Each structure stands twice: as C-alpha cells, then as structure tokens.
Please model this.
Amino acid sequence: KRVLYSIVILILVVLFSIYSYFLQKEIGPISTGVYVNEGDTFGGVNITENATYKEGVQTFYSQQGNFSILMPKVPEINVSENFNILTGFLFNYLFKADDEDHRYIASYVDIPKHILKSVNHTDLLDESINASLRVSNGTLYLREPLNISIYPGNEFIIDVQNKSYIVGNVYLVNQRMYIILTSFNYKYYEIDKINAFFDSFTISSGS
Model:
C-alpha cells in the first residue's frame, strides 16, 4: 500500500505540472523556452538558436526522449523537478506548441524501477487517468485501452467544465511514462489536426 501510495503521489505531482502548464498557472522550479538539445530536429533540421524551418506542421524528434511527433512549430520545453521521499527526484519533460485553436503537449517522466516492480502496470495507467480527473477538475468522457506496439497504454477524453476538452494518450514504455495531450475549446477544433497529432507519435528504436 505504501508503494502504491507513492505512485499516486508521483502521478499527481507529474500531472499537476502538466495541467498547471495547460492552465498557465505558476508552479514549482521550472525552466522554459525554445528547446535546444544536440540531436533534436524539427522537420529534419537540427534545432539551434539560429536555425530556420519551413512553415507549417513538421515532425519534432527528441533524441533524449526517444520519440517523434508532429508539432505546428518548434516546441517550447518545460522541465519540472519534483522530490518525493519514496521516489527520489523526478524530472518531468514537457514539450508544448500551439496553433490557432489547439494546444499540443508531449511529456515524459522516468519512473524508478523499484516502483514499477511493486505495482500492476494496468493499475498504474488507470490511476494516471484518475489523477488527471482530480487535477483538471473535469469529467471523464472516454477511457479505453490503447497499446503502442507491445507497450500498454490508455486513451482518454476529459470534459473540463463544459468549456474545453483534454484528449490524451498515456503509455508505459519500460520505465518511461509518456503522456500525449491536446486541449481545445469544445466549439473550435479541427478533428483532422487532432488525429494527425496522436497518430504521428512514434517510439524510437532502443527505447
């Protein structure tokens, strides 16, 4: 029970960071800005301070995160550092980009091995959605299993006070939990853009 409790705390801390960033609230020790890391690319172009890119939606590749996904522009990074006595230090990496009507986020956090050995992975994924509901103060509209390759996952839709929707996929890939999200006003959205965003998420070899 103690280990499962620490997992709940871990997920709540991580998702609090993510949703607080969605809602533009002030949180924790954070660094944010254009993400520059050797090996990362946008539209096949290495990301540097002086790089130029084609306009429009391009594939963003994170070398450290071992994933690629479509983004409407070079994403900003939000890195939050959290500490729990049972889990130790946790670093949540969050990549954000907006277009006219949507916010797109790809995020990941590495979960300690001793935690993963002590809990059922299905329960962990389910609890991540339950935590999402608590943090967003929303209502669950949809929850279904959705694997990526051999790795377990869930997709979900949250109605936030009849004003907006949060659509998300959460996957557990070895020690790493990926959380892919988009947020939009329930009156103004383009389903083709949303589907393309989620369908483009790919785990790199070696993850």
